């Protein structure tokens, strides 16, 4: 079993004079060869790594505070502290330190400023700072004491000597007796001197002195000394407040006497720090760091003692989670829990994690779910503070609780819905609670801090739950206020609530892709939001515009078509016209939105805006945005027009297979095809049908290219055969001159069949060749008929026949073996 006596927390004082937790481990003292001396070693309890290795120097001043703390300095600006779990462990290490330095373990500080041994060794060296002799604590000597204390504050060495002198022989208790006598005699001069004396004593910044002053029998007298400020005509009433007004209420039974005493002491010292002591000057701001440390360690100890008290926590949450608990009693319990969480904010992350896990295991979320609907504003505010603290530390804890609730068929309530209900029903004119709850809700739905494990997806599960069961509740006030063309309620509180809802929706648009898109389009939510563009509250108008701007920033085609279909720029243009060009945030925000559309070249929106609102926007000349938008629109229309003129030419005429096609031409046409596809996507969204003339034309072009390549191969084979025939039988051409006109004159597959049948049986090879070419032309003519070619002016069948005849005769005139292949009309 681990020795808890040696269990410590290691703290280091940072530049802001706050204690940083360096980790929890176990301390030991042993000889370290490298450091050549006895050293303090702290090893982490998690992995055994070395957290601290500090040699016990013979001249370092170690201080023992509150029976469980050892504090010392290493260097000028590096203070360390060990906080022990048990007093026995602190005493054991303290004895080791005192043994190394040769000190009595009964002292609370191991080093005086000037040691006797040093005086003995260096008798020839004069002491630059002789010991301070304090005046006798008497009314007549208060002025001398005041001057002495003030003079010592400016010199560090004399401050140390003064601190040691004040700690000895109960001197401060004797000064307190003088205060009691002076107050009884109403001696204002003596009381004024005592005010300055004790204020300066606090500035000595010594924990040993604080231990004396904050004892239960002296602390109220110390507060009394600080009531008699010389510049005040009448004394302050701090003691009256602490004794009569500030009552300690033991909401839950605390059996630990040490815990009760520590709570009292911490409250009073905090009050002295915040209310009694005057605000320190620029030269004194770092002279109360020890007092802050005293309060800090007290709070850590209180939280630790409560966390370790199982009975106390069990009794607390048993009442908080009981639905039969009365509202007044529940209020007291939740206020106690709020104070406990406020103290826990001083804990370091590791200790704070343990604290909140303890609260969760005892049912803190169920307690908040039952307590938040309380009508009392103080109780409601306390619940929100506790919830905010839990969610800020670990939103995953709350999400898991909500998902568990959703899976429980017997539980109709949902903590998420309770949060939203409290948000939209906040009666505070400033909506302080609603603002806090909106921050809580944003943390819960933020996908950036959601975890995704191997067997589950927290993000998907929780967002599905939120949009399915909670989103409709959140937007109910928005939908109720935007049913008509104008907002139904225009009071400030309603406007502020709607602004909070808009901020949450904008956050969802930015961080949730699928869920919010589906919800917006199904509910036509943007149209409802843009009704608020007519509100008389400018901040609400800007909130609605911000949501639309976030939608546009996604550059989502579905969102853009939704905006165009709903004509959702209309309310924005109306607000822009109503603003009349005034130089304000609304004018700049609207112009920036159109500047974004122009710079990102969102073709759908550019066309929609210029075709529907150009008559208003063209009149705006004090910025170049709309002129540039018009230019962008005209350039876009020119490109569309050029493509349309190309598309109107029949495919057989644009890609005439009479000539061999250059591969570069194919690349250009493919690029034009993909550009056309982009235009279709960015245009009206109409996809051509499977049998549209344009697609069929492109298909025929591809077929023609394939046929051309096939003809090349056949022509080569025919040329080789003709050369062989010429050498054997003297033939000059494989085709008779009467074949081409018949083929050219063919207008249907029937004519191709007729010509083939009229061929002489004796000319078998020519008949086969004629049949092949006639079938090719029949296929081409059938494709041309399907795509619906029309006759243009100046075109005629006779011209085609003449061209065909000319080609055939030209071919007959060539006698060389390397004849050209027959050309296709």
Automatic annotation (TrEMBL):
Could you give one GO CC term from the UniProt record? nucleoplasm
**Where is this chain primarily localised?**
nucleus
Would I find Disulfide bond among this entry's keywords?
Answer: no
Bias type Polar residues, positions: 726-745
Where the record annotates domain Serine/threonine-protein phosphatase 4 regulatory subunit 3-like central, the positions are 145-635
GO BP field: DNA damage response
Bias category Low complexity: which stretches? 746-762
> What Pfam families is this protein classified in?
EVH1_PP4R3 (PF22972), PP4R3 (PF04802)
Q: Which InterPro entries match?
A: ARM-type_fold, EVH1_PP4R3, P4R3-like_central_dom, PH-like_dom_sf, PP4R3-like
GO MF annotation, one:
protein phosphatase activator activity
Q: In what residue span(s) does the PP4R3 EVH1-like domain sit?
A: 5-101
Task: Print the keywords alphabetically.
Answer: Nucleus
Q: Where is the composition biased (Acidic residues)?
A: 667-684, 792-814
SUPFAM superfamilies per record: ARM repeat (SSF48371), PH domain-like (SSF50729)
Where's it found, cell-wise? Nucleus
Specify whether ATP-binding is a keyword of the entry: no
- The annotated region (Disordered) lies at 660-693, 726-767, 788-825
What family does the Swiss-Prot or TrEMBL record give for this protein?
Belongs to the SMEK family.
Q: What is this protein called?
A: Serine/threonine-protein phosphatase 4 regulatory subunit 3
Native organism is: Orchesella cincta
């Amino acid at each position: 079993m681990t020795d808890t006596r040696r269990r410590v927390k290691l703290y280091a004082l940072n530049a802001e004079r706050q204690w940083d937790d360096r980790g929890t481990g176990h301390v030991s003292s042993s000889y370290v060869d490298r450091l050549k001396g006895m050293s303090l070693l702290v090893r982490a309890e998690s992995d055994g790594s070395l957290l601290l290795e500090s040699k016990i120097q013979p001249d370092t001043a170690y201080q023992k505070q509150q029976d469980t703390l050892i504090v010392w300095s290493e260097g000028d600006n590096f203070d360390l502290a060990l906080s022990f779990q048990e007093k026995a462990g602190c005493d054991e290490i303290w004895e080791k330190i005192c043994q190394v330095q040769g000190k009595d373990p009964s002292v609370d500080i191991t080093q005086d400023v000037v040691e006797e041994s040093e005086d003995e060794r260096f008798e020839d060296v004069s002491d630059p700072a002789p010991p301070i002799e304090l005046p006798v604590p008497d009314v007549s000597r208060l002025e001398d004491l005041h001057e002495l204390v003030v003079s010592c504050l400016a010199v560090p060495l004399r401050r140390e000597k003064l601190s040691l002198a004040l700690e000895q022989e109960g001197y401060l208790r004797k000064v307190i007796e003088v205060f009691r006598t002076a107050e009884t005699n109403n001696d204002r001069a003596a009381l004024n001197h005592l005010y300055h004396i004790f204020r300066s004593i606090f500035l000595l910044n010594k924990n040993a002195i604080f231990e004396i002053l904050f004892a239960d029998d002296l602390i109220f007298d110390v507060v009394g000394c600080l009531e008699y400020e010389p510049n005040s005509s009448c004394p302050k009433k701090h003691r009256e407040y602490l004794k009569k007004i500030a009552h300690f209420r033991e909401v839950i039974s605390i059996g630990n006497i040490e815990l009760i005493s520590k709570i009292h002491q911490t409250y009073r010292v905090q009050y002295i720090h915040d209310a009694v002591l005057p605000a320190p000057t620029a030269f004194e701001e770092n002279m109360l760091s020890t007092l802050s440390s005293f309060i800090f360690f007290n709070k850590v100890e209180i939280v630790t003692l409560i966390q370790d008290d199982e009975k106390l926590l069990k009794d607390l949450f048993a009442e908080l989670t009981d639905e039969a608990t009365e509202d007044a009693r529940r209020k007291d319990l939740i206020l106690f829990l709020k104070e406990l969480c406020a103290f826990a904010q001083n804990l370091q992350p590791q200790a704070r994690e343990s604290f909140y896990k303890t609260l969760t295991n005892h049912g803190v979320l169920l307690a908040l779910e039952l307590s938040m609907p309380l009508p009392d504003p103080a109780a409601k505010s306390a619940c929100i503070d506790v919830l905010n603290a839990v969610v800020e530390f670990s939103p995953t804890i709350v999400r898991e609780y909500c998902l568990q609730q959703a899976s429980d068929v017997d539980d109709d309530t949902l903590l998420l819905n309770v949060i939203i209900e409290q948000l939209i029903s906040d009666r505070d004119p400033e909506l302080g609670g609603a603002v806090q709850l909106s921050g809580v809700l944003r943390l819960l739905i933020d996908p950036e801090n959601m975890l995704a494990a191997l067997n589950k997806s927290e993000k998907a599960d929780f967002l599905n739950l939120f949009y399915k069961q909670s989103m409709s509740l959140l937007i109910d006030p928005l939908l109720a206020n935007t049913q008509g063309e104008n907002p139904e309620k225009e009071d400030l509180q309603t406007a502020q609530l709607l602004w909070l809802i808009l901020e949450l929706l904008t956050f969802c648009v930015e961080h949730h892709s699928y869920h919010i898109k589906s919800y917006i389009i199904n509910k036509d939510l943007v149209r409802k939001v843009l009704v608020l563009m007519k509100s008389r509250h400018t901040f609400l108008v800007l909130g609605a515009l911000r949501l639309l701007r976030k939608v546009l920033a996604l550059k989502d085609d579905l969102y853009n078509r939704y905006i165009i279909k709903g004509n959702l720029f209309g309310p924005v243009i109306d607000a822009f016209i109503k603003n009349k060009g005034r130089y304000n945030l609304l004018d700049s925000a609207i112009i920036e939105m159109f500047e974004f559309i122009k710079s990102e070249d969102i073709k759908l929106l550019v066309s929609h805006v210029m075709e529907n609102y150009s008559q208003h926007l063209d009149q705006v000349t004090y910025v170049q945005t709309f002129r540039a938008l018009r230019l962008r629109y005209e350039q876009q229309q020119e490109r569309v027009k050029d493509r349309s003129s190309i598309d109107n030419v029949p495919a057989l005429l644009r890609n005439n297979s009479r000539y061999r096609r250059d591969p570069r031409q194919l690349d250009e046409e493919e690029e034009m095809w993909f550009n056309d596809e982009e235009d279709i996507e960015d245009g009206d969204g109409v996809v051509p049908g499977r049998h549209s003339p344009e697609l069929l034309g492109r298909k025929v072009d591809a077929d023609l290219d394939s046929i051309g390549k096939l003809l090349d191969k056949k022509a080569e084979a025919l040329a080789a055969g003709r050369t062989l025939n010429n050498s054997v039988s003297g033939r000059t051409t494989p085709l008779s001159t009467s074949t081409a006109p018949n083929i050219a004159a063919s207008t249907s597959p029937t004519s191709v069949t007729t010509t083939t049948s009229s061929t002489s049986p004796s000319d078998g090879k020519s008949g086969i060749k004629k049949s092949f070419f006639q079938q090719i032309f029949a296929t081409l003519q059938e494709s041309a008929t399907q795509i619906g070619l029309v006759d243009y002016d100046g075109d005629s069948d006779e011209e085609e026949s003449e061209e065909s005849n000319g080609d055939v005769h030209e071919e007959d005139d060539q006698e060389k073996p390397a004849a050209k292949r027959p050309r296709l009309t």
